[in-house]
UniProtKB/TrEMBL annotation:
<dbReference type="InterPro" id="IPR050659">
    <property type="entry name" value="Peptidase_M24B"/>
</dbReference>
<protein>
    <submittedName>
        <fullName>Aminopeptidase P family protein</fullName>
    </submittedName>
</protein>
<dbReference type="Pfam" id="PF00557">
    <property type="entry name" value="Peptidase_M24"/>
</dbReference>
<dbReference type="InterPro" id="IPR000994">
    <property type="entry name" value="Pept_M24"/>
</dbReference>
<keyword id="KW-0378">Hydrolase</keyword>
<keyword id="KW-0645">Protease</keyword>
<keyword id="KW-0031">Aminopeptidase</keyword>
<feature type="domain" description="Creatinase N-terminal">
    <location>
        <begin position="28"/>
        <end position="152"/>
    </location>
</feature>
<dbReference type="InterPro" id="IPR000587">
    <property type="entry name" value="Creatinase_N"/>
</dbReference>
<dbReference type="Pfam" id="PF01321">
    <property type="entry name" value="Creatinase_N"/>
</dbReference>
<dbReference type="InterPro" id="IPR029149">
    <property type="entry name" value="Creatin/AminoP/Spt16_N"/>
</dbReference>
<dbReference type="InterPro" id="IPR036005">
    <property type="entry name" value="Creatinase/aminopeptidase-like"/>
</dbReference>
<dbReference type="GO" id="GO:0004177">
    <property type="term" value="F:aminopeptidase activity"/>
</dbReference>
<feature type="domain" description="Peptidase M24">
    <location>
        <begin position="166"/>
        <end position="383"/>
    </location>
</feature>
Length: 403
């Protein structure tokens, strides 16, 4: 099989967004600050930090935080050892302040407090902040009332055009990884050699994704995971999110390639379920049912639809086929700077879908002792419906590996 999506002559892809882009990101939040009567918002969530300033870092005990005031003034706080990294990445903030070390003779958030202009009264804090970090910020800014807010999380729902371009490129590479996994297996079959194990197949597709990015992209933005996913076969695939093992694929197995990658920090996932050899009647029934649910579920992802309604429409296909007892999870979830993030395509989420959102469409069934069947595409909500960003074939004809 030829990797049709790969091209050695491609113009290098710009994986890092321009610093000026983040001015628009920060400006998007200001009306929400006003609506919630907040003088500022504070977050130390690594994904929020990257979203607001373009600074990607290795999260650890040393806090990195962003303060965005209602007047648009932004402050990025880093430990001193991360300051050069922030400068190299051209992190977008009006002020870059740093503290010496953690826990430090002087508490880290004191450096932020010194940089804050005026006397803020109400400060919204990201609900992702730990109690330890929130307490540290409150001690450094004793005159402020701290209130929880999800305004940054909600702002991240709808992607800017520049972000969508990153998602599309991540989808292209995810398709390359899927093709590479199939090619690796078919080559082993053609040689009549030993079939790969789950772990070997996972290592191969991960390597393919990472090498493709470093070969074809300018300034790769490293996040975890940069590329890879879950590979499981036979009865192992009946455990959602099971980790690859040393189990070696066998003729007749159902197996799953649950793959994805991040370009510019923006994720995409693409999952396909394969059958190794001629499918049995049961394998055909299970696969066809999940494919039908995924197709109808994708059509239900459209602007103005509630997340819970799309979920109900999708999973009803499986229930109506008499396979509801094998359901283990919702239809899908939001994707962005996190592989899993809100909104949730689940019975408890009434969020209305909007153009520019990216969500997964991944119904699955899991038959104990036999296998799991899941098909997933990352879907871009458009003005008139939605489109899958990943394109690898989904039906059983495309997902049968001949022996």
């Amino acid at each position: 099989m030829t990797l049709t999506n790969a091209s050695p002559s491609r113009t290098p892809f710009a994986a890092r967004l321009a610093p000026e882009f983040f001015d628009r990101v920060q400006a998007r939040l200001l009306p929400s600050l006003e609506a919630e009567s907040l003088d500022a918002v504070l977050t130390d969530d690594p994904e929020d930090v990257a979203y607001l300033t373009g600074f990607f870092h290795h999260p650890c005990e040393r806090p990195v935080a962003v303060w965005l005031a209602a007047d648009g003034e932004s402050i990025l706080m880093t430990p001193m050892l991360e300051r050069e990294n922030a400068e190299r990445q051209q992190a977008r903030a009006d002020q870059l302040v740093s503290y010496a070390e953690f826990p430090g003779v002087e508490a880290p958030f004191t450096s932020l407090a010194r940089a804050v202009v005026g006397a803020p009264r109400r400060v919204g804090f990201s609900t992702h902040m730990t109690h330890e970090r929130l307490t540290a910020a409150m001690l450094a800014l004793p005159g402020c009332e701290f209130v929880p807010t999800t305004l940054i999380t909600v702002a991240r729902y709808v992607k800017f055009d520049e972000e969508i371009a990153l998602h599309r490129e991540a989808a292209r590479i995810t398709d390359v990884m899927l093709e590479a996994g199939v090619e690796h297996l078919t080559e082993a079959i053609s040689r009549r050699g030993t079939l790969p194990s789950e772990a070997e197949l996972a290592a191969h597709v991960t390597s393919t994704g990472v090498k493709t990015m470093y070969r074809e992209h300018d300034d790769v933005v490293v996040v975890s995971p940069l590329a890879g996913g879950l590979v499981y076969a036979g009865a192992n695939s009946a455990f959602p999110h099971g980790l690859p093992s040393g189990y070696r694929l066998r003729p007749g197995d159902t197996f799953m390639l649950s793959l994805g990658c991040a370009v510019g920090g923006r994720f995409v996932e693409g999952e396909r379920t394969f059958v190794l050899g001629e499918p049995t009647d049961d394998q055909r029934r299970y696969h066809d049912t999940v494919r039908r649910a995924q197709k109808i579920g994708g059509e239900a992802i459209r602007p103005g639809a509630q997340c819970r309604a799309a979920n109900t429409t999708c999973l009803a296909v499986i229930e109506d086929a008499g396979l509801g007892r094998y359901l283990r999870h919702r239809q899908g979830h939001g994707i962005g700077l996190g592989m899993h993030e809100p909104p949730w395509l689940e019975a408890g989420d009434a969020t209305l879908l909007e153009p520019g959102m990216v969500v997964s469409n991944e119904p699955g069934i899991y038959i104990p002792g036999h296998a799991g069947y899941r098909i997933s595409d990352s879907m871009l909500v458009t003005e008139h419906g939605s489109e899958p960003l990943t394109s690898f074939g989904r039906d059983l004809e495309h997902c049968t590996i001949a022996l």
